[in-house]
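Trying the structure run again after the queue cleared.
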Amino acid sequence: TWILLLTVAILPADAVTITAADAKNHIGATATVCGNVASEKTATTSRGVPTFINLDAANPNQVFTILVWGDDRKNVGELPRIGSRACATGLIKDYRGFPEIVVKSGGQLSK
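Done. Tokens:
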């Protein structure tokens, strides 16, 4: 008897879509979070060269953050621009009281 075990890590196709403001109520869940890009900053002197894309309000009053690490930028591709609508799909985490999703591939971003 042969047993084949195949594990695939993908995002659920049926991930719930929520607003940036509602993301704080879904920490630990996988979802698609949508909002308007209010600010974008790449911290070029910080370890890991993170890019912070804040939805619905700019830092320090951000409502939700899409985080892209420098090493993942090539996999993510073009980032959403200020004033555009953006959605990120993934695990919602809490970082210092603010909800965020870490985006590692372009498939996690949509409009």
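The longest helix spans residues 73-76. Worth checking whether this holds up in the mutant runs.
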